[in-house]
Amino acid sequence: MFSRPGRPTSTRDPDAPRPKRDPRQLMRLLAYARPYRVIFILGALATLISSGLNLVFPLLFGRLIDASFLKVGSTDTGPLDRTVLLLLGIFALSSLFGAAQSYLLSRVGAGVVADLRRSLFSHLLTLSPRFFGDHKTGDLTSRLTADVGTVQTVTSTALAQLAAQSVSLVGAVILLVLTSARLSLLTLAVIPLIIGTAIFIGRRIRRVSREVQDAVAAANANAEEAISGVRVVQSFTAEGVERHRYGQGIVVSFLAALRRARLQALMGGVMSFLTFGALAVVLWYGGRQVMAGSMTPGNLVTFLIYALQVGGTVAALTGIFNQFQEALGASSRIFELMDERSDLPAPAAPLPLARAEGRVEFRDVSFTYDGDSAFEGAAVLRHINVDVPAGQVVALVGPSGAGKTTFVNLIPRFWDVTGGSLRVDGQDVREYPLTDLRAQVGLVPQETLLFSGTVRENILYGRPDASPGEVEAAAKAANAHDFIRAFEHGYETVVGERGVKLSGGQRQRVAIARAILKDPRILILDEATSALDNESESLVQAALERLMQHRTTFVIAHRLSTIRNADRILVMNAGEVVEDGTHAELLARGGLYRDLYELQFRQEQEAQAELVQG
């Protein structure tokens, strides 16, 4: 569980190739803006108008200067007054359209990010347990939050600024040349140097930004593990280990963030020097032209404002370029997940399964978790041949690691067999749509997972369209109705994260109610009573017996005394079914089952004796 102290863990295989940060990923990202194209067009028009108006005011400002200083002693203030009123009108319109473009394009960005989050989360839910076994939950949630948040900046603010600054740059350059061609050549000579610097440093910023995102994701994954398992952490007094492990991940992300900050600061400093250095030279040369009488003071001021606009837009575009570099790293991590495909392929011609009878048949089934059937020695299951008629109750027993849980996990197709075939109602499960197959299977595990809503919401998870009466009927059948009604808020009681506000027996009975409401044809009970006290176990066992009626049921038994009445008992050892029969038949046969039963019986007798003596 724990990594070596002093070395941060990573969610990525260091030997695995990094995904290519293809700029086309940003085009995939912008494709999510297609539903908002009308709003985007309106925002773009507002941007054009606002940027165009901003290009007018330097010209008017220059005229204002000439009207003030070239007509010294004149009492006619009409031109001056008209110019000021026109300037105020230009400023008002520019502000109005600027606010409109900011809102409209930000609306597009927010919509794109919301759609992207929904799309990514929906895609994750389609992936198989194998994928989630290979990826930490914290890393996946980091991509849903931090990475998509980085993308949001680009698809909203940065996108709006890119449009506005591009229009300003083109317009300012044209007006710059029209105002003074000589000074324009002097000013524009520095632009290639600015762009080259931006590209050179920007590539390094993109690489470091990806390192920051990976480091933050790794730290989040460690934190998520520690928080979800806080009771284990505290019981082992391992707070220091987890604090050190998370701290190491934060240090890695901090150092990477510092490298990125240094590169961004270097770029900003170089851009600032080149921009304002060029303006100083322009002011020196333009001043000489004014002194020579070849340029008016107003024209010089107009030119300087346009030159400042050019410098400002180039600097802004450089910043936007940095944001796009960061977004490129984030989008590569997002689309890396979007491009993941489930290892449980959908059938080419799926067979509908509206209501199964419940017959389950294993035909020479073998399974390895690496998916390679060639290595028989690594197989978790070997040549399983079992035919379970509909409605039969089958118990699975055997030592730890015998393959019992893997056996039942193949039925809802959490994994695909690597050899042989698994059939439900005579058809290979790979021929059914996954949703149809899993709709027929109910699972009550040993460690019950409840969601952090109300009791009613957790029961409704079995069938969201059920009526309140059906919910209560399911709770009564699960022996849960009485303790639920005893709560102050009854069925509206919030159970807390993972059902932490309920006892183990209460959580298990809510899970049984959920399964009863689903009404599956095939039921899987994975040691559903092993962690309960005697009183809770009797209540849960009674609820389970109601649930098992008229269903094909697979029971993984912890206490062999609870499965005496099973129609059939499969004894597993080392991935094989070594015995098959009823409780009485297996005891009479004198094999592994009798050894396990007698061992457990002696342990229970000794425990009772110690309890009496105590």
UniProtKB/TrEMBL annotation:
Stretches that traverse the bilayer: 38-65, 85-105, 158-177, 183-201, 265-286, 298-321
GO biological process, one term: oligopeptide export from mitochondrion
Its membrane topology: Multi-pass membrane protein
GO cellular component terms given for this protein: plasma membrane
Alphabetic keyword roster: ATP-binding, Cell membrane, Hydrolase, Membrane, Nucleotide-binding, Transmembrane, Transmembrane helix, Transport
Compositionally biased spans, kind Basic and acidic residues: 10-21
InterPro entries referenced in this protein's UniProt entry, alphabetically: AAA+_ATPase, ABC1_TM_dom, ABC1_TM_sf, ABC_transporter-like_ATP-bd, ABC_transporter-like_CS, P-loop_NTPase, Type_1_exporter
Keyword Flavoprotein (UniProt): no
Domain ABC transporter per the UniProt entry, residue ranges: 360-599
Location relative to the cell: Cell membrane
Residue span, ABC transmembrane type-1 domain: 41-326
Region (Disordered): 1-21
EC number in record: 3.6.3.-
Record has ATP-binding as a keyword: yes
GO molecular function, one term: ATP binding
Name of this chain's protein: ABC transporter ATP-binding protein
Organism: Deinococcus radiopugnans ATCC 19172
